[in-house]
Amino acid sequence: MKKLADRLLHRFTNHETALSAAHHSIVQPLLSSNGFFILCFKLAHKITVLTLFYEIVSANVDFFSFLHKNSGSGRTDQGTSGLRHRNDRRMPPQGVRLHIQDRYVVMDNGILQVTLSKPGGIITGIQYDGIDNVLEVRNKETNRGYWDLHWNEPGGKGIFDVISGVTFRVIVETEEQVEISFVRTWDPSLEGKYIPLNIDKRFIMLRGSSGVYSYGIYEHLKEWPGFELGETRIAFKLRKDKFHYMAMADDRKRIMPFPDDLCKGRCQTLDYQEASLLTAPCDPHLQGEVDDKYQYSCENKDLRVHGWISFDPPVGFWQITPSNEFRSGGPLKQNLTSHVGPTTLAVFHSTHYAGKTMMPRFECGEPWKKVFGPVFIYLNSTTNRDESLWLWDDAKIKMMGEVESWPYSFVASEDYPKSEERGKARGRLLIRDRFVSNDLISAQGAYVGLAPPGDAGSWQIECKGYQFWATADEAGYFSIENVRPGDYNLYAWVPGFIGDYRNDTIVSVTTGCKIEMGDIVYEPPRDGPTLWEIGIPDRKASEFFIPDPDPTLVNRALVHPQDRFRQYGLWQRYTDLYPYGDLVYTIGVSDYRRDWFFAQVPRKKGDVHEGTTWQIRFKLENIDQKANYKLRVAIASATLAELQVRVNDPEAIRPLFTTGLIGRDNSIARHGIHGVHILYAVNIPGNRLVQGDNTIFLKQPRCNGPFQGIMYDYIRLEGPPS
C-alpha cells in the first residue's frame, strides 16, 4: 500500500484536473480510512477519480471491497459497494476446470461457465451469476457467440461464413489457466466453398477471472489460391429478455429498442435497410425515434469497451479490446460496436467507412499469417438493481487494467510475442513551415505510428499487417511501445497541419530493441503564403455547420454537440436550407462554423437529385499574372463523387481540375464525419485570376442518389512562392 501511496502522490502532483463534489463523495471514505491517504486527500483536487481508480486497479487493490469495508456503511451514495467481480477480486478455491464432452467443451472457473460446441468452437452458452445463459437461447446454437468472415474469390460473389472448427485440442490445462483451440484447415478440395485459410480459434479462461479471452490465427499458404477479405469479427447475440441497456461511450448509452421493434408493423424503414423509424415500439417512450446501428460506430482509437446491461438481474456483458495493433486501418478507422439485437461485436477488419480500398486482396503465391486479438469478454454484476448503471463505469476501469496488461503474458501461441519479445521506438517530431514560424514547431498532439511499408498515408487503408501508434506530447516527443518484430515505416499526421508524413527509412524492429529515432522534421505541403483558408486540418468535417435533424427523425440519445453529425437524415437538410441555389461562402464575411455545410451532397428536386456547385468568393490585389497560385483541398470523405474546380467561369466546358470519380466511404449515409482522407493540390495560373473579386466554383455533379457527395476537411489558397 505504501507503494500505491507513492504512485498516487506522484499523480497528484502532476495533474491539474479538479474533482467535483460528487468525486469527493466517492474518494473521501477511501482517503480518510488510512493515515497515508489523508495526506493524499489534501492534494486530491489535482486528480480525477478515474485516475485514482486506475492506480488502484494497477496495484491489484479491489477498490469496491476496500471502500465497502472502510466507509462505515454497506454502500455509498454512488452505490458501488455491491459491484462484484471487479478486476478478478475473488480468488475462489476452485481452479479452472475443463469438461470435455461428446459435442461440447465447458470451461469453468467458479465465476462463470463457458460452453462451446465441439469441434466447431461456437460459444453456445455463458452461465453467470444466476443466469443459466446470457446468450440468446431462442437462437440456433450457431447464432449465439461466433467468429465469422465475409470473403470472395477474385471477381466472385461475396460469401458469408460462420467459422466452424473441424478439430479440437487442448493447448493449456492447469488450475490457473485453460487454453483451447478449434482449427479449420483448408485443402484444394474445399476451393470455392471455404476461404483458403487455416483458421485457429483460441479461447482462454484464467483462474479468478470474470470473463473469457479469444483470439484467432489466420494463415494463407503460398501455393493456395487468392481471395479477398471483406470483414472478420466476433459476434455475440445476447438474451433480448434481459439486456436492454447499451453503452459504448459516456455520451452514447441508453435504453435500446427491442429487436421486435424493427419488424414490420412496428417500424418504418427509411432511406436504407439499417435505418428504421419506430412507429409502434414495445417501449412507448421510444415512439418516433430513429434506430440505426451506424449511429453507434466508433474510431479504433476510442473503441476499447462497449456492451450491455441487464437490470434483472443486474449483470453487465462487455467486449474489451486492449490493443489496436491487429485492427485494420489505423487509429481513425471506424467500426461497428453494439446495436439492437442485443448484439455486441469485436470487429477486426471491415470495409465500413472506407469501401473496397480497405479490402485486402491475397494472390496465389503470397504467404500470410496474422493474429487477431486477444479480446476480452468481461461480465460483472451487482446485488443492488439501483447500482446497475455503475456496471458501465466498472467496465471502463476493467478495460484500463486490460490495456495496462497488454501484451498479455499468458497467451500460449508462439505467433503472439510477449512483452520481452517486442521492441519500442521513440523520438521527437518537429514541423518546418516557414510561413507559420521561422523556428521549428513541436508536433504537439501528432499521431505517430509504425505500420507496414507503403506510401505516405497508406496506413489508413492498410489491412494485412499490424500497426502501432502513439500521440506526441506538447514538445513533440513520442514513444511507440510493444511493437512486434518486423519491418515498418514511420508515419505521422499532425492536427492543424495538412498532409501525411512518412519516413523513408525502413524501421526494423527486433526482439527487445529500443530504437532511438532522434529529431524528425516534417515539412507539410506548401508553396506560398496563406491567402485564405476554410476549416481546420484535422481530417474531419466536424467543425463545419451541422444542421439540426428533422424533428420527426431524431435519436434522442445523440443530444451532445459532439454527436450532432450522427443524427439520421442530415443530408436531406441541405435541400431544406438551399432549395433553389447553392452554398456561397465569402472570405472575410462568412464563418465556416455556420456557413459551410458539412457535406456537399445532391439537391433533391422532385423525385430526382441534381448536382451542386458551391462558390468561394474572395478578393485579391497585386496579382502576379505569370505565377502559379495553389489551391489545396483536403477531403475528409467521398462517396462515388467527383470534384470539379473552375475559376471565375462556372460555365467553362473543361474544369481547371477534376478528381474523376472518387471514394466509396459511404460516410454520409452511415453518420461518419470522415472516411478515407485525400489531399489534392490544384495549380491556378495567375492569369485565371483578376484584380478584385474572384470566385472559385466547386462542382459535385454526380447525383444518382442522396448519399453521393464530399465532406471537406480543409481548403487553402496559397500565393506564389516568395
Per DSSP, the total helix count is 8
Main sheet, how many strands, which sense, barrel? 10 strands, antiparallel
Shape: globular
Which strand-content bin applies to the residues?
35-45%
Number of strands: 45
Q: Considering DSSP H and I runs of 4 or more, what fraction of the residues is helical?
A: 10-25%
Unreliable segments (pLDDT under 50, ≥5 consecutive)?
A: 1-81, 86-91
Rg from alpha-carbon coordinates: 27 Å
> Roughly how many Å apart are the termini?
63 Å
Mean pLDDT: 90
- Helix and strand content put the structural class at mainly beta
In short:
The chain is mostly beta strands. Strand 31 and strand 32 form a beta hairpin. Helix content is 10%, strand content 38%.
Task: Provide structural commentary.
This protein is mainly beta and 722 residues long. A hairpin with a 3-residue loop joins strand 22 and strand 23. 10% of the residues lie in helices and 38% in strands. The model is unreliable at 1-81 and 86-91 (pLDDT under 50). The chain contains eight helices and 45 strands. The radius of gyration is 27 Å and the shape is globular. The strands form ten sheets. Strands 1, 8, 9, 10, 11, 13, 14, 19, 20 and 25 form a ten-stranded antiparallel beta sheet that branches.
